[in-house]
Write a structure and sequence with these properties.
274 residues
């Protein structure tokens, strides 16, 4: 069996190695030996079997670093790296004929601010002419694009070992929501939580408990409210749906998973619609 050119792409191998190193610092020498032998034979099936055998080998010993993994921040979207913005996409009601404007710009670091992205634009609630089926406009959002595959399968984030999603942001105080897509019951499900800025106009770190996200579909809360599949997170993003006409601006430096309360101020529990 020959792997396709897509699987041989450098990005695929780099993502796979990053995932492997994150899972655990285990049996690396043994695995690399098996991997290189299989790779020299261009046998993708054999590589999968070698990986499986290595991860399940009774003599594999986990390092102390792997046992501390859950105490180490797991960076999801790090906008201090200018390449991260290329992995994101914007959306707005303009996609269906509306008039809202949205942009996502990379802003370099300064002595007073970290490198970050600027999510900004203008909300319009005007309805498109000659499209009577469109009854509601006035939203803008961004999220990461679907991640590429790795040797472990579909590119997903496993944040199950972590309690919180942390965000380093500077808000204008508008009603933003954090949006998370997982391998959910319905592909179009979005788990949402309000982004409660405590100090609009200032940089701050905000924490959201993963268990506090609410399952929605097409903007409506749906039942059953199953626990979010934090082992299989597909996308992460932020949206503005307050339908208040006018400009908006939210700056985001980083988004990461953590177990450390000292990373920021914990949110007070409030309802989705507050």
């Amino acid at each position: 069996m020959r792997p396709s050119p897509h699987l041989l792409a450098p990005g695929f191998l780099a993502r796979s190695l990053d995932e492997f190193k994150r899972f655990a610092k285990i049996g690396m020498a043994s695995f690399l030996l098996r991997f290189m032998v299989c790779w020299s034979r261009r046998s993708w099936d054999a590589i999968g079997l070698a990986l499986s055998a290595n991860l399940n080998h009774p003599l594999v010993v986990y390092s102390q670093e792997s046992l501390r993994t859950a105490m180490t921040p797991y960076h999801l979207l790090d906008f201090t790296n200018p390449d991260t913005i290329t992995m994101c996409k914007t959306m707005s009601d303009a996609d269906m004929g509306g008039f809202s404007k949205v942009a996502l710009d990379q802003i370099p670091a300064t002595p007073s601010e970290p490198a970050h992205v600027r999510f900004h634009g203008n909300i319009s609630i005007d309805l498109p002419p000659n499209r009577p089926q469109i009854q509601r406009t006035g939203y803008a959002a961004f999220r990461n694009k679907d991640r590429g595959p790795t040797i472990f399968g579909k590119g997903l984030w496993d944040v199950d070992p972590y309690v919180y999603l942390a965000l380093r942001v500077k808000s204008d105080g508008r009603k933003y929501f954090v949006n998370v897509q997982t391998e959910s019951i319905e592909y179009t499900d979005i788990h949402q939580h309000r982004l409660y800025a405590q100090r609009p106009g200032e940089w701050e770190t905000l924490l959201i408990n993963w268990s506090d996200f609410v399952r929605t579909n097409h903007g409506q809360v749906v039942e059953p409210q199953n626990e979010m599949m934090t082992q299989k997170v597909r996308t992460l993003g932020i949206g503005l749906t307050d339908r208040v006409p006018g400009p908006f601006e939210l700056c985001i430096s980083r988004m990461w998973a953590t177990n450390r309360l000292e990373d920021g101020d914990t949110h007070k529990k409030q309802s989705l619609g507050d």
